[in-house]
DNA sequence: CACAACTAAATTGTGCGCAACTCAATGATG
DNA sequence: CATCATTGAGTTGCGCACAATTTAGTTGTG
């Protein structure tokens, strides 16, 4: 928010606005593109399991932390009920999870894995290595990428 | 499986399957989360312009390269007609672009900016700096992130 | 010339992401 | 105790991503 008291503020270009537009284009595009490229590889790797990429994320959370309310899943994945409700319904229809109202708090719905959902974990074990090798990165590079992305996400979330 | 490793531990621990599942979770999640966090900040920055994030990408391409066929836009952004056709229709309704069939090749549709679309560039100039500062990164870090993401995307696209 | 193969857009259908809203249960306040 | 604000899920609506299909125009081959 710059104070522009003058109507036709002549603003001397810094690194040239055009360059910044280009840089911006490339930053947002490269992240966008990488995210979608991951999506494509996950789609292949998860086809056998009958899972989409976000559904796989939910399953990972359930495999790792066990039964938990929708709210907690949403916090872990930063997804709201508008996304999770229909997604969980699909997982339920697929027979992988069960949902039941909590006894203490009738507003809360606890999501738990079914036998089938638990069993799916075995078949999901080869997935991470497939993805890792598809990236062409070393484990160290992946970890540093993670850290960088984490920093960015934190900053962006604060700005938002 | 590999959980019977000896605690001799003169070497760095190799990732167990469980660790790989966790790592995978974190990698895909952090990229997914970062992409969505960017989306949120762009949403704010572009609200005044009446553009969504992908629409902004299309406008950037048009601002930079001028009139071009849908196919070329798709190649630059790695988007297919299933995404671009309705998106371009919305930009057309908004009065920012015009579409016309090419004379030489009747299959091709050339997209060009309207006066209004060209003028919008001025108002878009502040956006990149807003985004850059929201990331909390230096220009150098952004550039190296871009290179890394580019490498990943290339690898992933080849695997796909 | 006729016909098959190919190409560019558009369309259809499914799922995700998110804002805005509804609804029921809970908690807080007077 | 009655009322109001808050909370957790769910629903609706819009836009994007992508696979699969359709349509129309182009190119290649006999």
Automatic annotation (TrEMBL), chains A, B:
Q: What keywords tag this UniProt record?
A: Cytoplasm, DNA-binding, Transcription, Transcription regulation
Cellular localization per UniProt: Cytoplasm
Instruction: Determine the domain of life of the protein's source.
Output: Bacteria
Q: Sorted alphabetically, which InterPro entries does this protein's record hold? A: HTH_MarR-typ (IPR000835), MarR/SlyA-like (IPR039422), Transc_reg_Sar_Rot_HTH (IPR055166), WH-like_DNA-bd_sf (IPR036388), WH_DNA-bd_sf (IPR036390)
Domain HTH marR-type, chain residue ranges per copy = 24-154
A Pfam family that this protein carries is: Staph_reg_Sar_Rot
Q: What is this protein called?
A: MarR family transcriptional regulator
Stored SMART domains: HTH_MARR (SM00347)
Q: Where are the transmembrane segments?
A: none
Q: Does the keyword Transcription apply?
A: yes
């Amino acid at each position: 928010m710059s104070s522009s008291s003058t109507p036709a503020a002549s603003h001397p270009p810094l690194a040239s606005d055009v360059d910044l537009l280009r840089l911006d284009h490339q930053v947002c595009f490269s992240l966008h593109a990488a995210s979608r490229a991951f999506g494509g590889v996950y789609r292949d790797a998860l086809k056998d399991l009958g899972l989409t990429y976000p559904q796989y994320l939910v399953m990972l959370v359930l495999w790792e932390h066990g039964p938990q309310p929708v709210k907690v899943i949403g916090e872990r994945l930063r997804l709201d009920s508008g996304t999770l409700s229909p997604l969980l319904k699909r997982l339920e229809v697929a027979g992988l999870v069960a949902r039941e109202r909590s006894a203490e708090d009738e507003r809360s719905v606890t999501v738990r894995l079914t036998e089938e959902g638990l069993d799916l974990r075995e078949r999901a074990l080869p997935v991470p290595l497939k993805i890792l090798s598809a990236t062409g990165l070393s484990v160290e590079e992946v970890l540093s990428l993670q850290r960088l992305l984490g920093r960015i996400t934190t900053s962006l979330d604060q700005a938002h």
